[in-house]
Every structure is written in structure tokens, then in C-alpha cells.
Amino acid sequence: MFKDNFLWGASTSAFQIEGAWNEDGKGLTSMDVRSFKKEDQIATTKVAMDHYHRFKEDVQLMKKLGMKAYRMSISWARIIPDGYGKINQKGIDFYNQLIDELVKNDIVPIVTLYHFDFPMELIKKYNGFASRECINDFVRYSKVCFENFGDRVKYWLTINEQMVISQMPNFQGIYINDKHEEKKVGWQSYHHMCIAHALVIKEYRKLHLNGFIGPVISYPTYYPASVKPEDVLTAKQVEDLKVFCLTDVHFYGKHPDYLIHYLEKHDLMFKMEEHDEELLKNAQPDFIALNWYTTGIVGAYQDGQEINNDESALKPRRDRNIKGLAQFYMNPYLEYNEWNWNTDPVGLHYALLKMWERYHLPLMIVENGLGHRDVLENNQVHDDYRIKYLQGMVKHMSKAINDGVNLISYCPWSFMDVLSSSDGIEKRYGLVYIDRTDFDCKNLKRIPKDSFYWYQKCIQKNGDIE
Ligand code: BG6
After folding, report:
1. What does the alpha-carbon distance between residue 385 and residue 382 come to, in Å, rounded to a whole number?
2. I want to staple 88 with a disulfide (CB 3.0 to 4.6 A). Which of 25, 65, 421, 424 is the partner?
3. Ligand 1 test: best mutation among 413, 427, 428, most atoms within 8 Å of CB?
């Protein structure tokens, strides 16, 4: 059963919807550059969903949906165009207007400080988070946000999917040809982000703003490929290295030994300075926010040989293998979408129990959804597949709550169709369809999909749905 004050919402992020990429003083970001590189294949950040100019209309749709909360992000380069210098008042004004509009409509803003779009000037200056200098600039930017918006924003999310962006440095704007060097730089920036996250939390506490702050964790959840002890152990190790090493450092204020051991063994260990351990301490978050989409199957690495026995007649996923550690497979019991993401509501229940049991911190789901090539027919989108997905997730969240998990919010990804982080507009997630394609902005009309009306009822009934 969901509590009466459960935060039913939906999510987006700045670069995926705002457009106006160079308007009103905004600086260039890593996600602008990344999208421009693929300009001949996908839609770019230039117009995106034009939310920058249509935010009032969008908030009215949020209200119509009955949203109690809206998970959004602030673009660092709109607030401080080069990332470190002058503050851009027009950027502050834009987010002030948006936040005011939300509050006026009784929608609680849940705001991410850094969701993939990193100011490119900081790459030029010192290679972004690969450098320690970035820590101070991120803390300063965060403080500017707290001081300007903290009277109305009570839920702050620090860094979106730190593990993903540190393993894919080009998301941060860092391009390196050598694979090993790329990983090394990735882990170094990971460490700097851990310190930045801790210092931002401490800064927030100093301001006594009477709100809550925590990280956003991408939580791929892993099942062992068989009951073979080596597979069971590997599934645990992979989950530790992809998820729990980060939540552990946030919670305990120290990098766990299993991470240090793994990085040293593979010549990937980051540099730490004398006082770093001290800096990481005493910055416990108020909650853990999760981006949760799918489950994976992992078995022990067997020199590239697939597991070959009756129990595990599993289809391999070689794209994910971690040499020397793990091999990945497809789950024959689950449905996969075109991009190989499965639908596993039971997996969400399992994941919530695991995260809750490990830390006993309130949990928020700030992303969860299904990417699909939706079709607009007579001004309608019949996305029954998405309704089925959401229905399963809501049912299993409710079960997890009954099992004692303190889950306080659910924000499906995404409120409206957004630019996918890698695949343009045609991989749609939204509850609201945006009438545009990758190469034609058309009229950008907002059209609620069938899932919008289903979710509207779900919110009205506080999750008590069939
Ligand atoms: C999450 C990101 O990893 O997944 C979002 O926080 C992203 O920004 C979402 O859009 C879905 O991934 P993709 O690649 O399909 O857009």
C-alpha cells in the first residue's frame, strides 16, 4: 500500500527536452557536442522538445496528469556558461520561472544538479572531472543552485548515474582513443565525483535549507546464470562493481576494499590525496534515488566459452562481457525490446528489497520506463505495451512496500518523449507524445498517449490499480 503522501511523478532531464542550446547565454555542453557528432543520424539538442519555450504548457499537462512531483535537471552551463566563471542571470531566471510554475500547480520539484550535460569549457580548461579542479567548480555551481532555488526545491539529486558517465567518458565530453587509458581516466573522474558529491552534501547541510539530498544510482540488477557457485559469486561481484561500490562510498564514506582490490589488479586504481578519506566522510545522503530499468544475467568468465549445460541454455550477450570476470546472457523468461532491455517487474521488487536491506535509507525511483517506436494514429498513441510495463512495476513496488521497503516516490521515465541519451527521438519513453521526428521538428505538438490516461487513473487511486 502506498502512503497518502507518496510522490507520484514523472521524469525528464534538461538536455533531453529544453532545446535553446545557445539561447540566453547558455554555454556549450558535452551532450550538445555528442549529439552534433551524430547530426546525420539523430535529432540534436538544438531544438529537442522546445521545453525552454513551452514549459508553461508542459506544466499544465503535468497538472492534468495529476503529478505530485516532477523530476527534472538544471543545466550547469545555463547557470554558469563556462562552468566556473560568471553567473548567467537569464539561466537563473528560466529555472526560477519553471520552479515557480511547478509550485503554483502543487507539483514538488525533484531537481538533479548534473544529468550528463557537462560544460565544455571545463573540458578545454582542465579535462573536466578527470581533474581535481572540477570538484570546487561543481560545489560552487551547486551552491549557486541551492541559494537561488533552495527555498522552493526540497529534493536535490547530485549526480545522475555517476557509474555510467565515468565508464563512458564521452558522456562527460572526454574523448580518448586508447581503451585502457579511457578506463583509467574514467575511474579517476569517478573518484573526483565521489568527493564532489560528498562536499556538495556538506555544503547543502551548512545552508540549513530544510530539504533532502542524495545521489541518483543506475541500478542494473543481476541474476546468476546458474546455481553453479562460480556464477552466483560472479553475479554478486558484478553488481558490487557496477552499483554497490558507489552506494557504499556514499553511505560509509569510504571506498570499499573489493573495489580497490579490483582496480589495483587491473592497473586502473585512481590517485587519492592525503585528505581524501577525510573529505569522503560524514556526508551521508538522506535517501537513495534509483534509475531502474532492467535485470541482467551474469555467469563466471570462461575464456569466452558460453556456459553449456541444460540448466543454462542461455543466449549469450557478448556486448557486455567483462574479460576475466563475467559473461552476460539473455533471460529466456523475459521479453526484450528492440534495444535489448527486458521488462522485469519482479526484478524491481527484488532490487528494492536488496537496496533497502543494505542501507535502510528511504528510496526513490526517479527513472523507470519502456523505450518503444510509438506510432501516432489519428492524433492518438495506443501504447498498451507501456501500460503493461508500468502496471507491472506499480504492482511490484506495492509488494516491496508491503515487505517493509520505505519507497517514497515513483517517477517513470519519461514525462514526455525526450531525446534518448544515444538513440535520438524515435526510441520514445514518454507519457506524452511529441510530434516530431529525428529530422523534422514538425509542430512539436504535445499529445497524451493512452499510458498518460492510465497513469492519471493510477495516481488518482494512489496506486491501487489492476
Ligand atoms: C538513463 C538516463 O540512463 O536512461 C536517461 O538517466 C536516459 O537520461 C535513460 O534517457 C534511457 O536511456 P536511453 O539511452 O534509452 O535514452
Report:
1. 9
2. 25
3. 413
| CA–CA distance, 103 with 23 (Å, rounded to integer) | 25
| Sheet arrangement for strand 295-300 | 221-224, 295-300, 326-329
The atom number, within ligand 1, closest to the CA of 427 reads 15
Residue among 243, 211, 39 nearest 142 (CA): 211
Q: Which residues line ligand 1 (CB under 6 A)?
A: 13, 160-161, 218, 291, 367, 371, 413, 420-423, 427
Structure confidence at residue 312 (pLDDT): 53
Q: What is the pLDDT of residue 325?
A: 84
Residue 425 Cα to ligand 1 midpoint, Å, equals 12
Which atom of ligand 1 is the closest one to the Cα of 341?
Answer: 15
| pTM given for the model | 0.96
DSSP bridge pairs for 380: 377
CATH domain 7-223+248-294+343-460 topology? TIM Barrel (3.20.20)
Among 414, 437, 322, 316, which residue's Cα sits nearest to residue 368? 414
The predicted pLDDT at position 51 comes to 98
pLDDT score at 187: 97
Residues contacting residue 3 through CB under 8 Å, at least 6 positions apart: 408
pLDDT tier at 304, thresholds 50, 70, 90: low
Overall residue count recorded for the chain in this entry: 466
Q: Is the pLDDT of residue 307 over 80?
A: no
Please write the tens of the pLDDT for every residue from 276-297.
999 999 999 999 999 999 999 9
Q: Are 137 and 196 in contact (CB under 8 A)?
A: no
Pocket of ligand 1, candidates 29, 75, 421, 426: which has the most ligand atoms within 8 Å of its Cβ, to mutate?
421
Residue with cell 499537462: 61
Question: Mind telling me the catalytic residues?
Answer: 161, 367
**Residue 313 reports pLDDT greater than 90:** no
- Determine the pLDDT at residue 175: 87
DSSP-based three-state secondary structure for 108: strand
